[in-house]
Write a structure and sequence with these properties.
Radius of gyration: 20 Å
Shape: globular
Pfam families: CRAL_TRIO (PF00650), CRAL_TRIO_N (PF03765)
Domain CRAL-TRIO: 135-300
CATH superfamily of the largest domain: CRAL-TRIO lipid binding domain
InterPro entries: CRAL-TRIO_dom, CRAL-TRIO_dom_sf, CRAL/TRIO_N_dom, CRAL/TRIO_N_dom_sf
Number of domains: 2
Structural class: alpha/beta
Protein name: (Atlantic silverside) hypothetical protein
GO molecular function: phosphatidylinositol bisphosphate binding
Helix content: 40-55%
Number of helices: 18
Largest sheet: 5 strands, mixed
Order of helices and strands: HHHHHHHHEEHHEHHEHHEHHHH
Number of strands: 5
CATH class of the largest domain: Alpha Beta
Length: 360
Amino acid sequence: MGVNIKRKSTLPRRSMADQHDCHGISRPPVDSGATAGQSWFPGPPPPMYSCTLTPELEAKAREELQEKPEWRLRDVQALRDMILKEQPNLRTRLDDTFLLRFLRARKFDYDRALQLLLNYHAGRKAWPEVFQDLRPSTVKHVLDLGFLTVLPRPDPSGRYILCLRPGKWKPNDYPFVDNVRAIYLTLEKLIQPEETQVNGIVILADYTGVGMSQASNPGPFLAKKVVSILQDGFPIRIKAVNIINEPRIFKGLFAIIKPFLKEKMAERYVLHGSDLRSLHRNIPALVLPEEYGGTAGRLDMNAWSRLLLDCEEEFIVEFCQPDPLEGVVLPDSMLFEGEQASGKDDDTFRGLRSQLYYCY
């Protein structure tokens, strides 16, 4: 096993007020009234960092993420120093709570955490139609359609389950990017609690009703962007992707997605078909709704929608800000290649589209 050599902090620690004033980014306010109505999901963290992990989760973070409680804030300060020194023009939050997400997602490797942070902001610049004016009220139609929700009970490993139902969307309803907007807002909310940062999440994708119109609509260019953001541009650990009720054309769909997946992520995809017993071996029935053979009551698509919509002001502060990359010089190896890659990807799609029709 390789050993990560961490850089030591060389710059003086700055107060939170100084850091935020310098970069023009303030922390989203905590709406105690909204939080009180969301007791099934942990509320936002406090403005000043205070560890909320249980002793068991601290032990898990130490073992899986190389996180040492006694070094935690020192590591955050080291990452903060790197940002201020190497990317002084980057308009980003620098508070402990925010930076910890990136350290945990990259197992406290400073260089990889900084790269993830840059990717996180670069994704917004590369895909303005997703990130411009990104707030829950702009995707209410997606939420009302029942395209996604988060199940109210985490699995026995403490992982919340993001339930996607792509068959609910039809290309004539609204642009595909609106689905991506709703997914991204959901991930932003999911990653707030420290337990999610340590435990990760599980995705359950129900492909009931997915046909050729949905399967062929995004294309590989959009698929590549979505995968890139989830895999390399967002500080969350996706521990498993469970696919159920997949149609015959899913083989062609996966052929579009798989080239963009890292091997480790590709191995986390599990296809169950209509076999609920197979699903229950991965997600216990006690946390699943009745629709998926579970014992946790009927699937409620409204609770998560209400939760997101109650956080409108929080997302306005987070996303309706000036371009965080204005004046920033990014490395040549940045993740997102921009629109010039679309031609090549369209050629790839023409080759893969025949697979969709063959499977269909």
